[in-house]
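Narrative progress, year one. The postdoctoral researcher (J.K.) led the effort to move from monomer predictions toward full complexes, under supervision of the PI. The following entry was the first complex the group processed end to end, covering 890 residues in total.
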Amino acid sequence: MRVSSRRLGVYAVALAFAIVVNFILPRLMPGSPVDAMVAQLGPRATPAAVEAIKARFGEIDQPIMMQFLDYLKGLATFDLGVSVKYYPQTVVQVLSRATLWTIFLVVTAIIFSLCVGVVLGAIAAWRRGGRFDTIVSPFAVILFSIPPVIVALTTLFVFAVSLRWFPVGYAYDPNLDPGFNFTFFGSVFMHAILPMLTLSPFLIGEFQTTMRSSMIVVLGEDYVTMGRAKGLSNLAVMFGYGARNALLPVLTNLALMLGAVFGGSIVTEIVFNYPGLGLTLFTASVARDYPVIQGQLLLMTLATLGANFLVDIIYGLVDPRLREAGR
Amino acid sequence: MRIRKKSLRNLFQRTSLAAAALSASLAFSAGIASAAESVLTMHIEEQTSWVSNFNPFDLAGRRQSTMDFIYEPLVIFNANDGGKPVWRLATSYKFSDDLMSITYELRSGVKWSDGQPLTSADVKYTIDLMLKNPAVDTVGVGQTVASVEAPSPTQVTIKLKAVNSEFPESLADLAVVPEHIWKDIPDPVAFKNEKPVGSGPMTEVRRFTPQVYEQCRNPNYWDAASLHVDCLRLPQISGNDQMLALLPEGTVDWIGSFLPQIDKTFVALDPQHNGYWQPPAETVAFEMNFKSSNAGNFEAFKDLNFRHAFSLAMDRKSMVDIAGFGYPVVNLHASGLPPRFESWRNKAAEGDKDAFMGFDTEKANKILDDAGYKKGADGFRTTPSGKPITFAVIVPNGWTDWIDAVQIAVEGLRAAGINASVATPEYEQWRKQLLDGSFDVVMNSRADSATPFQGYYQSLSTAYSGKLTVAAARYSNPKLDALFDQYLKSSSDEDHKKIFNDIQVLIADDFPVVPVFNGPTWYQYSSKRFTGWVTDKDPVMNPENHDNNRMRLMHLLRLKPVQ
């Protein structure tokens, strides 16, 4: 596929850039991991204890070029180093603990929002100017303007603290041990609902709006008129002819928004004490845990690039014109 | 107070643990404990995920339930009981006549949790390990100890480098580790000690997940007769907000959190069982840098009149009520003695000497006028020799309660014509400034131990001047140093008291720092499942469950499950 191979070069440059920025960014923050650990100790930080911590993380004081070389060497061998905050766990251990939870959360939220947003957008466009459209469409704009932190705090307070319908934190009931049984999955589900709903409004608003405008354009196309003329049912025309073609901009949007979804998940995970990457990144930043921050940013860069790549491929599948051009 | 660091909460229903492990019959109805087992849920530290690490030598990484509960101290000194010793692994200690060595008598018959005997060889091994490997020297024996011997299985003799009658207190934080386990550990710093073998009451880590861990009864605990709790349960809680959200579930028994508006957010949830006692802890004081590089500030700080006026400009009550949510307690003593050391108080250091401890702007202005601090065109005073006085009071960014308190202080100072302001560097930067001396004024607390001596010694002696953050003032007074020296060289309680009386008078007279209030300790409890909680009606010990309070072990031993 020509489209993909041309873009591969772009991805390579983006990746190299990310790797360098990733190294520099944490080091621009004031304070060092050793300072942060000493701060944690408070008055117990006797000179001997401070020396001990410095000795343990001595490599952090190396010249910056040496640090960069070590960093590159580590990347090549998938050895991202040892976490400062969660010492002696390695970065890979820390991240793998958290990654699944975030993927679970983000993917569920995206699928849910995609379904809701696309259907709402399609219907609103179909009945453009109708009652449904005049209510739902402005509402969608409001939805994606509300910062996730507000949604998170409100849902936490209303549904978890006041009504107590849902738990206030964790990925599953701490009394349970993970296992393939109904109780465990039920618990995971219950604990994911609020964080997932918190992430969704912004996504639904975004998808609905994009879908609606794209659908309106598509509905003006000759083949839609043709479909109607053939006497196809409204539903068949709406989804088979209209929505299918109108989906393309929504998919592009999805790839672009992946970063924003991760951003939202940071807030959500902190508020709901959900053990994902967001919470890990937050703690690591506070602790100046360079190795974890680096590993995490790298992971997110790879995820975003990977998602873009995937969308490129899906695009080819969904849009027959591109498929033709690619051959 | 460092409110931002603390929050605790508890989480979940306490269910019968055995059943909870796997079965689907999770009892969601709160408070059903199996008759056979009593599980105490507590919150000590904020973490986003539990990491299994019970290495007592890893101060920053160890779980905060490692000391005391897994590794029992030799002896605990009870600050609420005049610093009297509570004997644990040791039954007594005795200094040699020249005070250059000390011999601990160990309790006989004590076993490690794996059944092996705990002997003087283990104590010797632990101290030797620290001497050999400074990275694990968590109590600073490298500076104080010359050598260790084990003359008999129950006796340890420690030879000191210098006379130091306070040495046993510095050893209070020592975790004695079993030689038969640790001698095979190649790197004691990186060791995670996930299956600890210890001497304390709660050594068996039964369950460990990122969200919760449980520490259960030591099968060979020497003081098992006093232990009525079978397991400690520590749910992961990442911050204050989370704690507040969890409180309504009523699942935590022993909490060490900052809870704003505690009567409303905690007690009101279950007035019958929920309680708290937050007794005043260490003294917080304004410290002026006696080595300030700014000539005008330097001249002013050195002047007793200026320090008195500074003190009179402090609205301590507002600091407590507005900045501290009413939790701290105003300190109105020129000596700055914390209330918990009431039994050490010297009446001769009070009365007239406390005349400058109120809030009286008029009097502050008058003192400065009389001493020749003239106001300039901008309304701010200069020193008697005509140099400008201008300084920032530094306080770490994010310590919101402290920042508010400093703001109140600065308003007071400006009303007295002193050009003060607030600066909020990052904590690391703040700490660095205290150590390198590049600051003018700081609001600071000192670390107290079981007797008031250590706090004063570390913050005001020439020996520590500028070397510890608590000694930021760089105060140096040969007379005070002589008293400190005398104190360290005498070993009788009577002498100690007498010398400390003199120390209080000297400090009240010379007024090196400006005490303002005493921060609270953090202790909340629920008597729904356990009784025996220490309250203000019977203040026999510090009940805080944080890692810096060794008496928390004795508090655990007081608790009994509700029948």
